[in-house]
Amino acid sequence: MLNSFIDEAKINELLAKTRPDNKQVKDIIQKSLSKQRLDLAETAALLNVEDKDLLNELFTGAKRLKEEVYGNRIVLFAPLYVGNNCTNDCSYCAFRCSNSEARRKTLSDQELKDEIIALEKKGQKRLILVFGEHPEYSGEFMANAVKTAYTTKFGPGEIRRVNINAAPLDVAGYKKLKAVGIGTYQIFQETYHQETYKRYHPRGKKADFLWRLYGLDRAQQAGLDDVGIGALFGLYDWKFEVMGLLSHAVHLEQEFNVGPHTISFPRLQPAQGVNIPETHLVSDDDFKRLVAILRLSVPYTGMILTAREHPELRREVIELGCSQIDAGSRIEMQGYSQALGQEQESDRQQFKLGDTRSLDEVMRELVSDGYTPSFCTACYRLGRTGEHFMELAIPGFIHKYCMPNAIMTLKEYLQDYASPETRNKGEQAIKQAIAKLPSNQLRNEVIKRLGRIEKGERDLYF
Ligand code: SAM
Ligand code: SF4
Description:
Blueprint: H1 8-17, H2 22-33, H3 40-47, H4 52-70, E1 73-83, H5 109-122, E2 126-131, H6 139-151, E3 161-165, H7 171-179, E4 185-190, H8 194-200, H9 209-213, H10 215-221, E5 227-231, H11 238-256, E6 262-264, H12 284-297, E7 302-305, H13 311-319, E8 324-326, H14 359-368, E9 372-374, H15 378-381, H16 386-392, H17 397-416, H18 420-435, H19 440-454
Parallel strand pairs: 1-2, 1-8, 1-9, 2-3, 3-4, 4-5, 5-6, 6-7, 7-8
The structure holds S-adenosylmethionine and iron/sulfur cluster.
S-adenosylmethionine binds near residues 133, 165 and 187.
């Protein structure tokens, strides 16, 4: 019988008793800037910082760490809902089985292809396929959807990395996905607090806290070494959830020698017929704090900020340590292939999105703000995943490999999909990014390859 590796008593005690002084907080930030993962006590100390000046140091530290580990690169992806049938009854989700108003749909092969083509036409290269939890959505079913995504191509467009966000599978199910080359398998625990978990998941397979908690252990056992964890902020105390996420990361490190590839921190959004008590809703200010603290706690883990948040807040939060965002997202079934207008349809989507801008608009803002947006998929295609990826995630790697790859994938986007204004600003951003590359040799090589992309070559990477 498995036990939970979330030590609630210890987390509660640390949160209740840790009252760090200024020097301790500064030392913890320094440890994190030396790229070491923090432990639970250190993270509890950061969570309990209330002093304004210290909070500012914490934000400055998170920004610096992001720059040093990830550069100014930001990876883009889009979610694609494949099916919203669901046998669970999560009280916060419009797809819950008791919501009779939801329009249910599983995309046919052709409908899925239509969605993929619509995404490729916008310039997307990285997808996350999303599924409800239903016997229909087996490992094999998901594997077929992944195959369709990789093989459906339109013009210069292609999908080069497919991730999945879905229910936990058994080892055999994950093996089917490994065989078709998925990227990351994401499962959000929603809340790490067992009693709260029980309350929000009254029925269906998801009611089993431990089956979900160990879901990514089974993925690792099946050889899927890129896994993503997450908590749905707003169900329980945000400080507890940060400690839960860290405990999960530590558990994966201890058991499999590799921490999670990504951490997600979705915040509860309004959804059809959903009425959640406001007790634990997370304010914008606390949201920024939790992102900065997560950044400092797990320096080498990718952090995903989704379009649940509105554009102004996203702009601020990206700086604090996010490495991936989705853009141009539609989360209603068939939302990409069927033009539905700006106002997304409530009976076809899981919750309400905060950022409904197009990919082009988001790209324009990113390059104007000094970022290098990236569609890079090199690591996973060269087998640089899991433990191997962790070894490579050493200082310098990002600047030698990820930045050049970001520049080249940005160039492809500008050539094939960007509006004239975005192209203009993007070309300036490329010049600035080239100037910051670590050596002349690399600069020259990248410039050469950009010339090849201008002549029509695609998919060049280091
Ligand atoms: N059905 C699968 C599951 O529950 O794991 C995977 C997909 S679910 C559609 C993706 C995630 O959306 C959930 O894990 C949950 O964290 C999040 N979510 C559900 N309802 C939400 C809401 N009202 N606001 C924000 N995020 C929500
Ligand atoms: Fe189903 Fe996932 Fe929604 Fe829960 S969160 S009702 S499992 S789609």
